[in-house]
Amino acid sequence: MSFGKNPKNFNKGRKGARKKVGDRFLKKEWWTIRAPGMFQERNFTKSPVNVTAGKKLSSDAMKGRIYEANLGDLCPGVKANKKIQLVVDDTDGGSKLALTNFYGMNTTTDHTCSLIRKWHSLIECHVDAKTQDGFLMRFFLLATTKKNSQRQLKATCFAQRSQIKQIRKIMTQTVTKEVKKVNLRELIPKLVDESIVSSITEKAKQIFPIQNCLIRKVKTTKRARFDMTQLLQMHSDVNVISKKEEKTETTGQNLIDA
Length: 258
What we know:
Elements: E1 28-34, E2 43-50, H1 58-62, E3 66-70, H2 71-74, E4 82-92, E5 97-107, H3 109-115, E6 122-130, E7 136-145, H4 161-180, H5 184-193, H6 195-204, E8 210-222, H7 228-234, H8 240-257
């Protein structure tokens, strides 16, 4: 039988020539994704990957994947207005376990929009800073101006351009100073408890009072060469964030007992 030159007839042939498509997930395996040690929920998700076939290893397919999780899921009890990005650096094929490293942080859109006010100046800036272990991070900050006092009669509280430049300079210098003296493991608790932001607010008060100061976004622009020692330090069992919370609760209980 001749089909001619009609392209519609090219796929027509014998019965059953069409390939049967099976369930794709039968050829996949599930890997556990483990967060670094400063978070309370270590195994926060599972991810499918194609099984090893020939020279294509499933462990190689996992490396480099980026996962985003809400901070409230990684650390129950902490404000859930931040999203943490984690990248897979190493894998354990025997136990189907993927070890992740910190890659970036972002703030939820609803929280960012709730900070913007009418009749206030919005101050934004970004700064590149390098940690002790060689990770180059880019920080995006924002803040809004604040009324001088409760008795202020003026409806607006706009800052002058020269004042905004000085506040941006304070933001840049404070972030650079705080980041360069810590490594990546010590930087994450600083981002969660907002100690850097509190320092900026206190210093900027001398120029113009600000409020709602926030590190809106953090992303890694250049990563250091892979070091297994650094990754194992990130995944050590010492839980930095939960320890700080326990210390706060203990201090409060001591004050009550006193």
